[in-house]
Design a protein that fits this description.
This protein is an alpha+beta fold. The protein is built from 3 helices and 4 strands; from the N terminus they run αββαββα. Bound molecules: zinc ion (ZN).
Length: 84
């Protein structure tokens, strides 16, 4: 993502913070333009369907934490969550 942003970002562009909220990326930036917004939007959308544990395509969301997981990681995490 950062490589792509570098290509389109103005020289004073800065990323203030990157967080994960509700199973998707939440990015705060300064001096962005339409092109940086486009790149960020693409990755935010991608983050909704990518396993937060291993980066594979997500097939499910955990219930307690609204996070996307793939088939491999989902059951493991759900078990972990249900045990508290
Ligand atoms: Zn996974």
């Amino acid at each position: 993502m950062y490589d792509e942003l570098e290509q389109v970002a103005p020289s004073d562009y800065e990323i203030e913070d990157v967080k994960e909220k509700w199973g998707m990326l939440d990015i705060f930036d300064w001096h962005g333009n339409e092109k940086t917004d486009e790149v960020i939007h693409k990755y935010v959308e991608l983050s909704k369907v990518t396993c937060v544990n291993c980066g594979k395509p997500a097939t499910r969301r955990s219930t307690g934490w609204i996070s996307p997981f793939c088939n491999d990681c989902g059951p493991e995490y759900e078990k972990f969550i249900s045990l508290g």
